[in-house]
Amino acid sequence: MPCKQIGFSIHSFQMDYIWILLYLTAVGAISFMGGNRKVGRETLFFVSFFLTPITGLIVMLMSPEIEKKKGIRYYKCRQCGFAFDKKFEFCPVCHKNEKGELDTNLKKAEEPLPEIK
Question: Where are the domains of the chain?
Fold first, then answer.
């Protein structure tokens, strides 16, 4: 009595791994290429993974590129953490300098601000 062949062979089992690896490589490549797009890497990863890499590619190509300004230096306040592109002696948000001293030249408002209801 001959043995019945099982529904899969080692060859087809290895081919499944190759297709899964190719699929994940395509998903990773599309999400990496979309890093400079408005839609973002994470969104492209999930769209490509759960729908198809072709759908992710279409979404990536439809999304506009982010314009990065080069040569701009950003400064960060050590007191409040606010980031701005011009260097100030005192932070424009918390009005403190790098040492934590409060700006003494601040003008007080003559009238109190109206309450928001």
Answer: 10-62, 69-104
